[in-house]
Amino acid sequence: MEEKLTHAIQLIEQGQHEEGLKKTEALEKTADDETKRTIAELYFELGLVDKALTIIEKLMFQYPDHGELFAFAAECYSELGKEDEAIEMLTEIKNGDPAYVQAQLLLADLYESQGLEEVAEQKLIDALKSEPEEAVLQFGLGEFYLNRGDYQQAISYYKKAIHNGSLPEDLPIQPELKLAEAYSATGEFEDALAYYREGLEDEETPDGLFGFGFTALQIEDYETAVSAFTRLIEMDPDYTTVYSYLAKAYIAQKKLGEAMEVLEEGIKKDEFNEDLYLELAKLQFSKGKHEEGKTFLEKVIALNPSNVSAVKELLVYFNNEEDYEAILDLLTFLDDFGEFDPLFEKFRAKALFEEDNVLEAAESYQVALDSLSKDEVLVEEASMAFLAAGKKEQAIGLLEELLLMQPHRFDIEERLVELKKPND
């Protein structure tokens, strides 16, 4: 029986799915219960969850005290989108059952996916009270708090799980890498790097290498960042997020040629990655190639009009070029997509004023003043627009604010004196 099942599995692994499944289904009819369980696991792995559940439900009826069967059924129900049935299965597994710990972890995941975070947390805490030395539960709480953004709590439980020394070897990721991720999120980059190194010594994973490189980048350890990111690309060239960060590390080392090559290679892998075009634009501007930089920014905005960073970069470029018509065209294009940022109004207002649309300029300046911090340039520009639009009192108020910011501006004092003179 075991040999026949092994042969069926081999056929499936070799791509002969139909023949392999036929042999498996034939075996299912005469198999003993242990083999049936193995067949159910095979069906589950192949995505045939309904077929797996059918077998498991029959086994549960025969072995009502085997909690691992209820846990398996819960996983099937969860895969089928039947969370309530999954929860019902898991609550049947009582404390003391070998599957109890697994059940609490699965329950926590289900409750968390339903937005019931407090219930999920309490399930894990209660389980840990019953099994205070259970490293898997400690690790599970670390995962819960990391996902919730409570990094200090995550660090505490991850460290307990690691120091416990009894974590199973088949965890999907090295626990040291998860601890490193939590440390990095708190800004404790040196501690994070130490745990990344420890975890990556045991097993290099794409996410682990990315986190290692990203953390090194934060403390300006560019050599380590480049090494980690390069190894990641060698391992998984389709991990396209990494290319822009590797380019940043090269740029920090003033290796602009290498940065350009990395960004271009990244675009070959993902032509819709706006971050790569944005970094290329910045790189071109830094090399004085403004027209090329503009072209890449326009590419970003075409891909994603809500990319505020790209829009701001392009607005600054047009403003420096005094191309006010281009500013207005760009902002009209964004208006059509419903995109708005208060900073946009500052550029729109100046462009309108320079194009002699003083009334509209004053309106845009008012929006900018209401939404942005009042820096000296904005206040002075707005005062000029209000004056031109005939809004004398508003202009006076702004000039008075400007004088408080720049008390040595005698020209503003003189302007205020002139504006406050009574009309003849």
Description:
With 424 residues, the protein is an all-alpha fold. It has a domain at 341-424: Serine Threonine Protein Phosphatase 5, Tetratricopeptide repeat (Alpha Horseshoe). It is built from 25 helices and no strands. The protein has helices spanning 2-13, 17-30, 33-45, 49-62, 67-79, 83-91, 100-113, 117-130, 135-148, 151-164, 175-186, 189-202, 206-218, 222-235, 241-252, 256-269, 274-286, 290-303, 308-320, 324-336, 342-354, 358-371, 376-388, 392-405, 410-420. It is elongated, with a radius of gyration of 31 Å. The N and C termini lie far apart (111 Å). The mean pLDDT is 86. TPR repeats lie at residues 135-168, 206-239, 274-307. This is Tetratricopeptide repeat-containing protein. Keywords: Repeat, TPR repeat. It comes from Salipaludibacillus aurantiacus.
List keywords for this structure.
424 residues, Serine Threonine Protein Phosphatase 5, Tetratricopeptide repeat, 25 helices, 77% helix, TPR-like_helical_dom_sf
Set down the secondary structure blueprint:
Blueprint: H1 2-13, H2 17-30, H3 33-45, H4 49-62, H5 67-79, H6 83-91, H7 100-113, H8 117-130, H9 135-148, H10 151-164, H11 175-186, H12 189-202, H13 206-218, H14 222-235, H15 241-252, H16 256-269, H17 274-286, H18 290-303, H19 308-320, H20 324-336, H21 342-354, H22 358-371, H23 376-388, H24 392-405, H25 410-420
Helix pairs in contact: 1-2, 3-4, 4-5, 5-6, 5-7, 6-7, 7-8, 7-9, 8-9, 9-10, 9-11, 10-11, 11-12, 11-13, 12-13, 13-14, 13-15, 14-15, 15-16, 15-17, 16-17, 17-18, 18-19, 19-20, 19-21, 20-21, 21-22, 21-23, 22-23, 23-24, 24-25
